[in-house]
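Appendix B, example 12.
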Amino acid sequence: MAALLSADPRPRRLAAPSRSRRASWSSRLRTSAPGSPRSGWGGIGWCLRSSTCWRRSAIEAPAEGEAFAPVRRSQDERWNINLAVARQFHARDGHLSVPRKHVEMITMDGGGEGMQEAVKLGAFIDNSRRRAATLSPERRAALDGLGMRW
């Protein structure tokens, strides 16, 4: 009984690594990503600028003078894409009761072998409901045609 009372209920800490192991581990972290100031990965920006990274990966390198930039779309283009995704969802499921986190895939560039793009349909539907008072009559009529629950 005395042995049970004197036992320390806290778990024992593991011993810290030796000085040589600590140094080699931290130096590997510091040099793991060229251009990272201290330790860790430091982002992948170094990989995008490095020709060796392009040769080792399956990603195609950008052409000379071509820059990486996300596709910028106007509000009307985004509305049309979101509406097309809402029509696709409604045709498949018969309703627009979409959870806020729902993401729907749509094929861009027409045809059967275009690129797949993820569209946040749940956020679009939820935001449309919240901003119903400010929607134009045409946009509101388009959503009403799909049986939108306001």
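The chain has two domains: 23-56, 75-145. The longest strand covers residues 104-107.
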